[in-house]
Amino acid sequence: MTPEDGEPAPIKSAPAFRTEGRPPVRLGILLSGRGSNFKAIAQSIRDGRLKGVEIAVVISNVAEAGGITEAQQLSLPHTVLVSKGRARAEHDADVVRCLLDHRVELVCLAGYMRLLSPEFIAAFPNRILNIHPSLLPAFPGLDAQQQAFDYGVKWAGCTVHFVDEHLDHGTIVLQRAIPVLDEDDAHSLAERILAEEHIAYSEAIGRVTSGEWEIRGRRRYMKL
Ligand code: GRF
Predict the structure, then answer these.
(1) How far apart are CA 55 and CA 109, in angstroms?
(2) Which of 168, 176, 164 is nearest to 136 (CA)?
(3) Which long-range contacts (CB under 8 A, 24 or more apart) does 207-213 make?
(4) For 73-89, how does the pLDDT look when each residue is reduced to its tens digit (9 = 90+)?
(5) Whose Cα sits closest to atom 12 in ligand 1?
(6) Distance 21 CA to ligand 1 centre (A)
(7) Which of 91, 102, 132, 161 is catalytic?
(8) pLDDT tens digit string along 166-189?
């Protein structure tokens, strides 16, 4: 199909990664809490299930974040840049500087409880991923699993998406869905979604860094 046939042209010139013959793609992980998604990514890399990438730095905006202790235990470069009490633009500028200092090519938000400034997003165009514990566009924002449970949905899940200037909104990379069971409560549902997140994030990073994709409109296409 050509653009004249109505197929939207790639509007977000997704600068594909070329992994062949190049050093590993350098990931920057941003987190604020326990860091189980970060840990799952690190484990996938160590196990050789996620190839062609390495964790260049882990950054937390919260000093007590469990994820930072984990990074320390895994002997990965890590930094705390406390955001509390600072203007967003000022804090984000420090984070971007740290990511660039570590030559980060793909930023992965893994439970990073901060909205990014437009300047941050512009510094990494189509190079920031987020994971959200719902099947977007349903239930953006906080407590997505509780929102889904309260709504009474029969299917729930998680979404890995590119980050744009709107909350939980950018182009979807992949989703994993699970049925909501009659015996579920919001807590058990959240736990089962988390298990899916741990699979989804590594898979999404693998796809994005494969270089074999492009974004057209809101759709991400894998090239054959
Ligand atoms: C996950 O549920 C993720 O989807 C959301 O924040 C939570 C982070 O959990 N964005 P963890 O810190 O990775 O364990």
Answers:
(1) 13
(2) 168
(3) 207/173, 207/174, 208/17, 208/106, 208/129, 208/173, 209/17, 209/19, 209/25, 209/52, 209/53, 209/106, 210/17, 210/19, 210/52, 211/16, 211/17, 211/18, 211/19, 211/20, 212/16, 213/14, 213/16
(4) 999 999 999 999 999 99
(5) 35
(6) 33
(7) 132
(8) 999 999 999 999 999 999 999 999
